[in-house]
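User: Need the bound-state model for zinc ion:
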Amino acid sequence: MKQKELGKLLLKELKQLGLRNARMDQYGYVTATLAANTKRATPVIALIAHMDTSPEISGRGVKPQIHKNYSGGDIVLPGDRTQIIRPTESLELAKKVGHDIITSDGTTLLGADNKAGIAEIMDAVHYLIKHPEIEHGTIKIAFTPDEEVGTGVKYFNVKKFGAKYAYTMDGETLGEVENETFCADTVRITFQGVLIHPGYAKGKLVNSVKIASDFINRLPKDSISPETTEKMEGYVHPNGIEGGVEKTTVKFIIRDFEVEGLKKKEEFLKGLAEETTRNYPRSSFKFEVEESYRNMRYVLEKYPEVVEKAMEAVRLTGLEPRLHSIRGGTDGARLSYMGLPTPNIATGGHNYHSKLEWISIQDMKKAIEVVLNLVKVWAAAK
Ligand SMILES: [Zn+2]
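Assistant: Bound-state model below.
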């Protein structure tokens, strides 16, 4: 409901801008259309950002601070002076001397993830309305709820929305275009023991709590875990355990950039469970795999122009375009599989999901330029 409050505000602004069909539906999706001003046949493209912020830290009562003309060095946040943004830790900040930096006061999130994206889309649209000489096709806008809890596009009607390609404005470092996400599965391994009254259990009882514990202890300590991997490496991550003497279930999330890598990791876990139960006669285990999501690259590589045009827009803005892989999922990944290919473009925000979030006003202006160039590139396409 709090997201809908923001939705109402955005709806009002979209209407004030004069956008057609601006509306918010029962699920909180705010959508609008900027009509084409060109007679050329251009595909309908969409710009998407999410309205919710990370539930890990409060985004209520944000007191934004503008640190004008940043002179380098640490930024101490005034509401909680233990919260310090250091250029030695936030390496991008070191490059922003002379910029105006926006932060929270250190007691809350800033919420630039993803309100920076919303602001940039709004500003780009405003600019296009003020500058009718810029030729563009039909542009759809969507502001979505619940991205941070992974259900942002659950009720999104791709067909009714009517866009052919879309871009989420939800990345971080300027210049980055994100075309890849993890492939993700959930695995549940249930160890079955034998339950007998412990007073009369000699030679009969098989304790599944001990089997599960033995199994977990066999996991590699120096590889394939979130705490030992980075960049293009995948992992297996036990993130829950539940049970008693008779039955214990260990839950895992499995991540890899390729489906084959995902399957290999699952086979590895299965082998490890087999090896473990071999030491406990009369025990057994059940191995269940549930698909969570797949790398959006598998879809995007069928429509290479979608990512290419984003790279071109970045280049036209005077930035160096870089492809980047997301060690997680995005709404765009789900949308891609729902029939709307959607790579992710940078907003310029940093330190997401933390009280140390920051963004430069000058970088936001660059991100807006990227959007405007993207619109131009699509309008000029054959
Ligand atoms: Zn986000």
